[in-house]
Amino acid sequence: MDNVSGILNNREIAAGVWLLGLLIFSLRSKAVRQSLFGILRQIASPKLLIPQVLLAAYIGGCVYLLWRKNLWNVSLLRDTLYWFVTAGVLTVFKYVTAKKGKVPVKEMLIDNLKLVVVLEYLMNTYTFALWAEMVIFPILALVVMMNAYLEVKKEPQIVATFMTWVQAIFGSVLIAHALYSAALDYKNLGSFDTLRSFMLPILLSLAIIPAAYIMAVMAQYESLFIGFKLGKQKDRKFILHCKWRVIARCRLKTSNIAKLRPFDMMHLNNKKDVDEVLKRVEMSEEELAGDVTCACTIPVPTQMKDTLRQPDQTKSNKN
């Protein structure tokens, strides 16, 4: 246990024990095992695995630069890996899933400069005894889950308020304990090693922004170009021409890419259609909301026309 505690703090050990126990208990169900294996297969698919490998290589390059500047050493390897599988992957996910192409670059920069970053570092550094963390973790997890449930289900306000106060009290106790412990440990807190440990997640979070933004752009283009795989098959050279025109017009601006639709790509038939579709990039939000048509003329099949005429013919026969 001493070796483990040298790598993980008491809070991380408690969380690991509870989560491992929950996983073992859940794996008793065949349905859970099948779902878990399905998720693992999806994660291991080239579509998801290759971007993660590239992201890991990029972060590895950033860590190397920090090492050259004496801002990283081997003692921070655990913190680096922990940051990557949590905050790093979550940052990319936020960028890729941003609605209407509004990638939160500014928000991410501000979040890394807030006072709460200092509090989070102190709370993760100064924890309670292991037995106390083992008791606190399931209670706090239950409170957080109940708060999330109450927000979704719109339960009576008095219940939601009570649970919010309970969560706030837990948070206040953790913050107070961290600040008190930090005050007693002021000598170590002021060391250069502590400064490196504190600055590591901030520097990595700032460094990942360009990579996450590029991945968000690539994901948007991939989603947009799905339209070429639908509908009537098109010539490969024409598809490449369309993609080049779209990329040359939208470039790396996610808000421009978001103005185009897979529906538009599906019905491109000639270069004139491409010109008409690209006019959407110049439209405002209000104009886009009112534009429910495609720039291209979509022929209606004869069979569908006959089907639409049938009600009128039936009505005339009755008369």
Alpha plus pi helix count: 17
Overall mean pLDDT:
81
* Gap from first CA to last CA: 90 Å
The secondary-structure element order is: HHHHHHHHHHHHHHHHH
Q: From the helix content, strand content and strand pairing, which structural class follows?
A: mainly alpha
How many strand segments? 0
- Give the C-alpha Rg: 27 Å
Helix proportion: over 70%
Range of strand content: under 5%
Principal-axis shape equals globular
Q: What ranges have pLDDT less than 50 throughout 5 or more consecutive residues?
A: 294-309, 311-319
Sheet having the most strands: none
Folded structure, characterized:
- This protein has 319 residues and is mostly helical.
- Among the domains are: 45-126 and 186-226, no CATH class; 230-298.
- Helix content is 76%, strand content 0%.
- The protein has 17 helices and no strands.
- The protein has helices at residues 2-7, 10-26, 30-43, 46-68, 77-96, 105-111, 116-125, 130-153, 157-184, 186-189, 192-224, 236-250, 254-258, 262-266, 271-278, 285-290, 302-318.
- Residues 294-309 and 311-319 have low confidence and may be disordered.
Summarize the structure.
This protein has 17 helices and no strands. By secondary structure, the chain is mainly α. Among the domains are: 45-126 and 186-226, no CATH class; 230-298.
